[in-house]
């Protein structure tokens, strides 16, 4: 029904569509400021900072799901794989594509000699929470996400 493979440069237009679909689902479509040019440079340029798997529907070859990951370093745990996002288009959810993607990312974690993997899930996203609970994942409370945008950093640093 589905096939998995590493993402290619020519997949990026569809990948960005799926990212925007996820942002809409998470009620934050205006938050997507990523572009195809940034994704090309950051994933397929001389110093890639993310990896990508795509899930295709066998009958059509259409990309219906993606998993984007990168590596981070934990002072407590060492090298970790960070799953940035798994996205499966709404019409294909519940048919096993998400499991295929998640399993592949777990395998990549082991192949890369990571000490584990981590990701975030919104506290209201019950379908995703239930999906991760099936794996026995630990869902931590008590951590707050913090961020600064590039324009905010420039202002703070007087740049």
From TrEMBL:
GO terms for molecular function: N-acetyltransferase activity. Residues 2-158 form the N-acetyltransferase domain. Keywords: Acyltransferase, Transferase. InterPro entries: Acyl_CoA_acyltransferase, Diverse_Substrate_AcTransf, GNAT_dom. Coiled coil: none annotated. PANTHER family: DIAMINE N-ACETYLTRANSFERASE, GH14572P-RELATED. Belongs to the acetyltransferase family. This is GNAT family N-acetyltransferase. It comes from Algoriphagus lacus.
């Amino acid at each position: 029904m589905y096939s998995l493979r590493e993402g290619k440069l020519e997949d990026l237009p569809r990948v960005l569509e799926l990212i925007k679909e996820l942002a809409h689902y998470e009620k934050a479509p205006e938050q997507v400021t990523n572009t195809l040019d940034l994704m090309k440079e950051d994933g397929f340029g001389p110093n890639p900072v993310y990896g990508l798997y795509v899930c295709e529907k066998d009958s059509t070859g259409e990309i219906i799901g993606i998993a984007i990951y990168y590596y981070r370093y934990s002072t407590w745990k060492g090298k970790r794989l960070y799953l940035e996002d798994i996205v499966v288009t709404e019409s294909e959810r519940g048919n096993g594509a998400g499991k295929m993607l998640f399993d592949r990312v777990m395998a990549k974690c082991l192949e890369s000699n990571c000490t584990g993997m981590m990701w975030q899930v919104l506290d209201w996203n019950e379908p995703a929470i239930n999906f991760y609970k099936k794996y026995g994942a630990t869902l931590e409370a008590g951590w707050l996400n913090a961020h600064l945008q590039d324009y905010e950093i420039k202002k703070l640093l007087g740049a």
